[in-house]
């Protein structure tokens, strides 16, 4: 998967999530649709990335947004150095650096 394709996919996921949030705020529960959608995303990403790679993608999509109000937020390497995932490109570069493509190959 190229960087440009990855960024486009991540942007589309973000738009879909924003739409689901807007529907929910309007009193429309799209949970049944969303569950299927998230299952599709998970399956496709797991075909492209290793399990560790998918875990980082899920972290970026579903956990980091909870900390969006923090001025500085990052994960850390084992040695304590920061892992910045402020955008899809930084995530992609981290996945590539770690070899989290399918079966550890580069993406």
Write the SSE topology.
Elements: H1 3-25, H2 31-48, H3 51-63, E1 75-76, E2 82-83, H4 88-98
Antiparallel strand pairs: 1-2
* Overall spatial form: globular
Helix content: 55-70%
- Strand content range: under 5%
Q: What is the number of independent domains?
A: 1
Q: What structural category arises from helix and sheet content?
A: mainly alpha
Distance N to C terminus = 6 Å
How much is the radius of gyration in Å? 15 Å
Order of helices and strands: HHHEEH
Averaging pLDDT over every residue, what do you get? 86
- How do the strands of the widest beta sheet line up side by side? 1-2
How is the biggest beta sheet arranged?
2 strands, antiparallel
Tally the helices: what do you get? 4
Number of strands: 2
Low-confidence stretches: none
Q: How does this structure look, described?
A:
By secondary structure, the protein is mainly α. The chain has one domain (3-104). The protein is built from four helices and two strands; from the N terminus they run αααββα. The protein has helices at residues 3-25, 31-48, 51-63, 88-98; strands spanning 75-76, 82-83. Strands 1-2 form a two-stranded antiparallel sheet. Strand 1 and strand 2 form a beta hairpin. The chain is globular, with a radius of gyration of 15 Å. The termini are close together. 10% of the residues are buried. The mean pLDDT is 86.
């Amino acid at each position: 998967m190229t960087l440009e394709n990855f960024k486009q996919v991540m942007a589309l996921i973000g738009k879909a999530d924003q739409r689901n949030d807007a529907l929910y705020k309007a009193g429309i529960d799209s949970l049944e649709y969303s569950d299927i959608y998230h299952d599709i995303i998970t399956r496709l990403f797991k075909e492209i990335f290793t399990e560790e790679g998918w875990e980082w993608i899920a972290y970026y999509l579903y956990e980091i947004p909870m900390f969006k109000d923090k001025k500085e937020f990052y994960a850390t390497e084992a040695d304590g150095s920061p892992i910045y995932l402020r955008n899809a490109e930084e995530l992609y570069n981290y996945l590539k650096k770690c070899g989290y493509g399918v079966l550890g190959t580069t993406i």
